[in-house]
Structures are given as C-alpha cells and as structure tokens.
Design goal:
Layout: H1 4-10, H2 21-56, H3 75-85, H4 93-107, H5 111-135, H6 171-178
Biased composition (Basic and acidic residues): 170-180
Organism: Canis lupus dingo (dingo)
Biased composition (Pro residues): 204-213, 223-232
C-alpha cells in the first residue's frame, strides 16, 4: 500500500492534445459572448427591480422568488456565429473583443440584442482584415525562392568585367602606389644618420703595382741562345 503514491508520482503528466489556432479563437469568442449575455441579463434584472421599486414604493427583493429564465441562443444562430468566428484571424481576436466590450458599455443593450451586436463586430473585423490584406504589398515571385548559400553554390563567385571600362583599379595597384620606391641594386645606398650630419663613406685605396726587380751585380748576360731567323 505504501508504494502506490510512489508509482503515481513516477507516472508521466498527461499531455494535452495540440489544438489549432482557429479552434482556440472560436472558443474564446463564444465564451466572451456567453459571459456578456449573462452580464446583460443581470443588469436588465437589476433595472427591472429598481423600476418596480420606484413604481410600488415597496422592496420585495428579500422575498424568495422563482428562478429567472435565462436567455439562450437558438441552435441555428449559434452555428452561424461559430461559422463567422472561425474566419477571424488570431491576430484580430483581441481587437474584436475590445470593440465588442466598448459597444456594450456605450449602448447597454438588452439580452436579445447582444448576439446581433456581436455579429456586427465580427463583420467589421473581417472587413478590416480584408482591407489590411489588400494594402499589404505582395511578395514578388522570385523573392519567394530561398537564397542559395555561397558555400553550396557550385559555380562559385564570378567577377564582373566591363569591356568598356577604361581603367580598372586593382588591389595590387593600390599596394604598389603606397609602397616606397625600390632602390637600384647596382648603386650603393646612402642614408644620413638621424640627429647628425651625413657621413661620407670612405672608398678603399687601390693597390699599387709591384716594382720591377733590379738586376743583380755580377750577373752576366743571358745564356739563352738567340732565336734563329727565318730565311727568305
């Protein structure tokens, strides 16, 4: 017996069946109509009692009386109102209820007049929705197509080249324009040190030619035999 509460606690909570927005709008509007009809009936009964008290001069409200008959819609009228309520867009449900309450506060109708006032409010809301839909710009056919991701495009990005353009600026051209001029490699680079006079670079001295060797003393003439001359 002690395990029954634990078993019930482990059970999953019941899930509500999903309901369509049109059904929720229909139920909300019909509940608003039923509540306003009961309120109008109560106010009508209070007005009738106040009028009877003024006419007779006696208050009989403390006496037990028979239950008052409540006003109800006919089945055909209820089906017609439900058909109109099903056409109301969910975004116009709140404005329809506010407009219905505003008219009830201004006119204070009888019980049998509440349903007709409710029908007129629904027709007004439907006409307003149609005007808003007509004034809203319609999307173009090609704008309904979902945009293609650039990574999934097999063609890849394409650069547009105009054959009539005189000069097309490129990124490399801008970089070359902002870069400092390159020096010539065949010439030395002279740069003045910062904060002082320019320093002159000294060139290395050229090597002098070696002197010819002097003849030694006591050395005789060359013993090399003379070259024979060619005979003509």
């Amino acid at each position: 017996m002690a395990l029954i509460p634990w078993l019930r606690w482990n059970e999953a909570p019941p899930r509500l069946s999903p309901r369509r927005p049109a059904e929720m709008v229909l139920e909300t509007l019909m509940m608003e109509l039923a509540g306003q009809m009961r309120e109008a009936e109560r106010q009508q009964w209070e007005r009738s009692n106040a009028l009877r008290k003024v006419c007779t001069g006696v208050d009989y409200s403390w006496l037990a009386s028979a239950p008052r008959p409540t006003y109800d819609l006919s089945p055909g009228e209820r089906l017609q109102l439900e058909d109109v309520c099903a056409k109301i867009h969910p975004s116009y449900c709140g404005p329809a209820i506010l407009r219905f309450r505003q008219l009830l506060a201004e006119r204070e109708p009888e019980v049998h007049e509440v349903s007709r006032l409710f029908r007129s409010v629904l027709q007004e809301v439907l006409e307003r929705a149609q005007r808003d839909a007509a004034a809203r710009p319609r999307p173009r056919p090609w704008s309904l197509r979902p945009p293609r991701a650039p990574a999934l495009d097999p063609r890849g990005p394409r650069a547009r080249v105009s054959p009539f353009a005189g000069h097309i600026r490129t990124v490399s051209e801008d970089v070359e324009r902002d870069a400092p001029p390159l020096r010539t490699w065949s010439l030395p680079e002279f740069r003045a040190p910062q904060g002082g006079p320019p320093r002159q670079l000294s060139t290395p001295p050229r090597p002098r030619p070696a002197p010819a060797p002097e003849p030694r003393e006591g050395a005789g003439p060359s013993c090399r035999p003379p070259r024979p001359q060619a005979q003509g």
